[in-house]
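Quick one:
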Amino acid sequence: MSLELEQRNIALIKPKGSRILQMTIDEDINVPDIKPDIDKILQSNCVVNITGIDVYDSKVLVKGDFNCKVLYVPLNDSKPVHNMISLIPIEENINMDDVVKNDIIKTEYVIEEMKITPINTRKINIKSILQVKVIVDEKKEMYVPMDISGAESVQSKWDDITICTMHTSKKEIYKVKDELALPSSKPNIMEILWYDRTLKNKEIRLLDDKINVKGTIALATLYLGESGENKLEFVENEIPFNGVIECNGVNEDMYHDIDIKIIDDKIQIRPDADGEERVLSIDIVTSLDIKVYSEEKNNVLADVYSLSNELNLDREVVKYETLLCKNQSQCKIKETIEIDSNEPEIMQIYYATGDVNIDNIDIYEDKVEVEGVAFCKIMYVAADDNSPINVYNTVIPFNQVIDAEGIREDCRMSIRPSVNYINCSMLGEKEVEVKCGVTLDAIIFDNKELDVISGISEEELDGNKIQSIPSVVGYIVKDNETLWDIAKTYYTKVDNIRETNNLDVGEVKRGDKLIIVKNIDSLEL
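Output:
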């Protein structure tokens, strides 16, 4: 009966390539006819929403929207502030060699620069630089030998390996809806002038066939009260959410790399039970970029030899990944900020919000050092009759070290930064203290190689070679030798060596002395 190598097919999703490019936005936007002229721009809030990805001719076409909301002080208007919204379509072709339709394509973006300049009182210019990263993964099949059939007198050795494979890669939408009543001390709402919403305290857990998504949306709302005096009012709310997303086959023993971002929102005024405009209706849409990994242990056939025939082995090197580490680290930032002399003095701080970017990553001595900046916006009541509201922008650097035992330069990693909280307290008319918590979610993979058996054939033993091996040998173990190596060299079995030398379970070491008896099956000399 001929020998047959029994193999197992393991489906892998492996990195194929990535590209980083800068996308420039330079648009002139007219103020809507229903809005008053612009005197001073206070702040902007911009969101990029990738709406489509297509592949053709070794190119990746990325389409999306650049949604920009602007808060400004009007010229000669009774209301202290106004806002305007612009939706700018974006489209970019990115060259990616060998990319095909079946590849898994993911995009990440960072708004590197953002500048809004009034051209005149009825037109603004929006300039922005987006860093867009396109990551391409491909589906691969890895064949590993598990056993040999049709063999007699064959000795086999197996190695245990753990392979990390991507179980799920997809995008999902999760919506948060709620209604918030104003505190009794606040007047009714006449008009919403501005709002900021940020994700906080994000917590994601894998369950059986589900993903549990928890967190808080912090909502800061600036509105015009129904007092008849165009008085500005400010209210803060926290909206907790806790829900599940169906994800077939996942379980709590797997590992995830999931990013959640707000991509759309709608805040509307609703009447309460008494018919008064005192309720905020919240409808927020988040996008989840989901990657789930599983670790699979495999008993791989590492080596074989026969006591009755000569086996010829074909080998090839296969590459795979193992999970090196997954952790979440917290970086606390505390900074005292001096407001620029040309900015109005602070009377009262409304709120602070921000974002975070990673500038540099260094690897050394089982550690990953992350350097970045937190962008902080502080909205406050200003001591300025012409501009009662002001927004001050500041940048705070941070540095955090992540433990990653065994990490090397060729390891693949994903480090996802987010702002967990920003607190701002007034120290003086020109001085504030900012406390910021930055969360770094890291998942790191190690690259491995395995020399596996890809084919096998057999032929008759060389009689002269066998006759040259003594029937009984006194042997001294050399460096890095195992009982398997010795048994294979002398055409015997590991169990026979153990029995002859009264060896228990375990390996031999350099300098051990052994008696080896040649054991050849059905050999005619």
